Here is the input.
Amino acid sequence: MKRLLAFGLAFGLVVAGCGGGGLGGGGGLKIGMVTDIGQLEDKSFNEFSWKGVQDGASAVGGSAKNIVTKDIADYKQNIQSFVDQKYDVIVTVGFLIGTDTLAAAKANPGIQFFGVDQFIPDPIPANYQGLLFNEAQAGYLAGIVAGTITKSSKIGAVGGREDVPPVVNYIKGYENAAKSVKPGVQVLVNYVGDFNAPDKGEASAKTMIGQGADVVFQVAGLTGAGVLRAACNAKIWGIGVDVDQYQSLPDAKACIVTSAEKRLQNATRDAIKRFKDKGKQSGNFTNDATNDGIGYSPIRNLNPVPAGLEDKLKQAIADMKSGKLKPVP
Here is the structure.
């Protein structure tokens, strides 16, 4: 998962030399977004978080600008740039920028801060809200697909690190769902200990494929690109994570059937609207099935799509919304 690259990756901010692009406007709220390291159009966390910020700004009659981070050392100054310009709301993206976001929130109680994929420990400032996601629910949807399409009754999941709860939650949901639709299915799980090693991901997936797995789910950031590459090379099915990886990893699109998604665009848009409607937002806000915060990407490459698969997915979402279905009891 890209956000989990937080442990070994960093994206820099184009701050000093390059002010970010943005959605102009006269009055209204001034909303700034500081990206994770990398580029804005990354077809992942930065891009979809920014789309939501723009949607939110439009919804509340405000304006939005972004600063693209080029180096982890720039997080603090990029946030400060928006503080100095007297922005009302500052959204920061990714786990790694959380420490600097917390410090900025404490130092600037008059500004609302939102942190995408940032869990905030107590005591939480009254002006800082973490935007989290129910990964177990998204993983469950991926598991329904895997359990439905496997012919060998063996499927795999490759995780980045076992000590990162979102990774474990994705995989637990996946495993439980696969077993619910195909009792007796064997779920092979391996944590490679790295979010930035495609070769390790490829090797892990090859091992699973050698053991008979005909569907593999990647929950491993850039490591996962190797997982999906191995799936394509072996002509089996792959499932992506966080965003629609059919779009973000074109080299693997031939074998990606779906992705377990965090609805980043909804999360940032709705956070801005909450602030406008209700004032300061604090705590950790979970985006889940009840608020369309998680989901699955369109089913692709299956021709025909197995009968009943879409119905199973829709029913699972409905049951998670109502509380009837708990992916990890």
